[in-house]
Amino acid sequence: MSDFQTKQYVTQSSQRQYTSGFKDNVRSITQDRVEQVISRETPKVQTTTVEVEQRSATKLPRMQSQQVLRTQTQGFVGGQSYISNMAAIPQIGYQGNYSVQQNCVAAQPLCMNVIVVSKEEIEAPWRLECEYLQSVIAELEKRKEVQVVEKVVEKEKVVVDNSQVQFLESQLRQLRSENDQLQLQLQSMRGEIQLRSSQTEDLAAKEREFYNLRIKFESQIQDLEGQIRRLQEENGRLRKENNDLLLKLRDYENKIAMLSSEIERLAYSIKIKDGDLEDLRFRYEQLESQGQTVIQEKVTYLSSEVEVWKQKFIKVNHDYNECQEELTMCQAELEALRKGQKKEVVVSTSKVVTRTGGTTTTSSMGQTRGSRIYEQFQS
């Protein structure tokens, strides 16, 4: 059982104790007061003529006292006993001089605790007590009227002179004033009853408000508990992910350390290679400059060789052309001799020398009277 349910159980039990105790207390007090009033008023109804004469001789009777008890309410916080004394019914007596005393008990400070009870349980005892008090008041009013009538009738029978009539009239006025006082007390009691009813309604409204607040707070507590459970689950999941990420971070840190050492080693190797590359570049530039010099010298040498060979080729080609012309003339003469007749031969030659790459082509054309010879030579 939770703390809230325990408090509610204690509150309900204390409220039941309060209701039953209050009801019994009010009923016992009311019955005692009614019995006292009846016991005091009964001798008045049964008074005889002798008593009337004695009263006339001993002057007007007076009311000895009239006590009005105010409602005293004592409440104890936490559901303890709650005692309320209703206003007592006035006690009337006809002994001694007429005097009115109104003793008011000092009202103690009212300490009330909002008790969680149902509206029906609070209103039921008040409703029953109000009905009971109203019936008692109505009965007392009827008795008062009957007593007044009986007294008047009896007094009319025994009273002869004007003094007795005046006495009866004064007594009637007194009874009427007492009746008015009772009416005022009745109105005050009704006002108190209405006040108690309004207080009961206020308590019921506060009870409903408290019940609504309790339901609201319980729903909020359930929602917050659900949120706490979800947050705890989320926290556990995040912790697990955090641990996994920490493990991965350590692995990455180890890999980064290895890669850093490898990078340093490779950077050192790169520096060495850069030095070697600079040396090779320097050697290449030296070799390139030397090679260009050698190539230039070789080109110069080969160019001079080409010129020499070109001159030699021209000379050889000239000699070859001359030999070719002589050969052509000899062939022509040989042909003429073969035919048995001697003809005059006129030889005309033309030479064309063409050089393409390393190949030289020579074209020679010869023409005689009546014949034409075309030859090509390649070397």
TrEMBL record:
Coiled coil: 165-269
Domain of life: Eukaryota
Gene3D superfamilies on file: 1.10.287.1490
Keywords: Coiled coil
Protein name: Uncharacterized protein
Biological source species: Paramecium tetraurelia
Taxonomic path: Eukaryota, Sar, Alveolata, Ciliophora, Intramacronucleata
